[in-house]
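[SOLVED] Need 3D model of a two-part complex

Original post:
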Amino acid sequence: MKSEAFLFAGVALFFLLTDAAYIVLAREPAGTAALTVSFLMSALIAFFCTANYRRKGKRPEDRPDSQIRERSGFIDFFPPHSAYPPLTALGMALLSIGVVYGLWLFLIGVGVTAAGVFGMTFQYAGRDD
Amino acid sequence: MLFRRRRQMLEAKATEAARAGYVAVDRRAPASEAARALLRKAFPDHWSFLLGELALYSLIVLVLTGSFLTLFFDPGMETEPYDGSYRPLQGLPVSDAFDSTLYISFDVRGGLLIRQMHHWAALVFVTALGVHLLRVFFTGAFRRPREINWMVGVTLFMLALLEGFCGYSLPDDLLSGTGLRTAHTIVMSIPIVGTYLSFFLWGGSFPGEIILPRLYVVHVLFVPGLLIALVVLHLVLVVYLKHTQWPARGRTNRNVVGQPMFPQFVTKSAGLSLIVAGVTALLGATAQINPVWSYGPYKADQVSTGAQPDWYVGFLEGALRLLPPWENTVAGHTLMWNVFVPAVVLPGLLFLVLYAYPWFERWLTGDMMEHHVCDRPRDHPTRTGLGVAAIVFYAVLLLAGANDLTAFIFQISVEALTWVLRIAVIIGPVIAFMVTKRLCLALQLHERHLVEEGVETGRISQSPYGGISESHRPLDVDRYYRALVRYVPEPLDAGKERPRWRGSRLRTALSSWYFRDRVEMPTTPEQRTQILERQKDPTDDRQDT
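Solution:
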């Protein structure tokens, strides 16, 4: 996953530079926040890919001379269906609107988001494989 | 040795005393008969059957707290200057009703706790009734032979609304007085008899001095008496007709599977009753409700801002706020459609629809069978859709009842919000119906896929050719059973029915609209025979061997 790591590290670097320039030149909080979050998100993906490369080494698709059949077999577990991501999104929406309109809506948003995150984390935690 | 003999003697004595006591009671009262009926009753174990019990136990809390409140409450309407212990109101002219409410709140030991518990329990009671009614509706538990019990339940719901409104009016604070003013207008809006009726009820012009004592008698005697009598009838009918049950292995239309009264049901139900009492007490102790002292006493020329009724009356308030100011004058008399339609015609229609629904559905199916197995809402898309449409209609009205507060909190225009809600109250239910019906059919289709293909495991693998696929495991037996064993009536056949009368064509058309949409499940002939066997009418005496 080395190439993916480089790709996203480049993206993160781009956002970091843009962010720095933006902070100095624009002095405006919304754009700064957006660019900082973008940097953090792409850095997270780059970190994930690096960590995976360190742990698992090269995959067949990283080598130019590999065969398709080398990759065959069990890949991994991927959650097949879940209602929790939309629930989390709804909770975050309520939470953010709550910041504008009042504590009561914010607290409802916190509750819904917590339920969504809890569900996302533990829905398939008990599977046996 | 000595102690053991003594203990044995005592045990024998106690057993003997218990037996003698039981025989004594049994000779004088139907103890064995009651025990046979109750101890042998099979109680359902699904949570959805506890909603009615929630209502029952909150009713018990209501009766107990209400009895305590009657010891101190005085519904009189003569005003005197207030000189109680709440300083900010001193010197204001207050009625005996308001004065005694303040006395209960500030001077009676535990009075405020009991008053707040009473109010909270009332909200829980109506909520539990409403949710229980929805459960019965969506699972089709109102079908033959439970139509009478459905009507008893709807009557209970109506009485609960009336009881709640009477109780809300009693403290004679500014909010409840405003509520009574609204009620007065509603009574006056009835064409021809309205004015006479309002003069009769209020003993003259508004507010008068007679309405609260009358409402008090209604609130503590007539309606509770009727409520308790009907609850008893409701429960007797439940025992007589037995509970419905969810489709599962071993449960058919001809048997009742459940837990015995003792010890399972008694333990669970006692726990639930204590939870209801405990939660109500906790709410009463920690969450303030209806602080009448900060609203102040009722004066006919004052209205408080942000006035809200209790939630279950909110839909009427919302309907009143949504209807445009329509009125006509006929021969010198004003017909107030803007009040008459939302506050008299609408609730009348609502309850008429509720009362008539079991017969309406039976008319559409032509079904004379008894049904003891619950429907899953998805298997009856049209019924579920209609139910959800009704909920959306109700919810929009409830929202409209708070249009001033909503506009204030979200800083939007009241007029714009009112127009949005006026449109939503008409379009919302239609959209809700279509979406729900579609979702029900989608759920059926999903279940069909599960039956045919099994459940996704999430384990992804890649074939030597590069294809990526997910493994499936077969549906477990219980879900398989639930998917296949279902009762979905066929639409009435237009060809089969001879057009003997005029409504017949309408009937077949409606029936077709109601029952034509479904997703057939893949079944073998053997499975179909088995399913029919499980759905057989218990009154059908032809036993097959």
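Edit: The longest strand of chain A covers residues 73-77.
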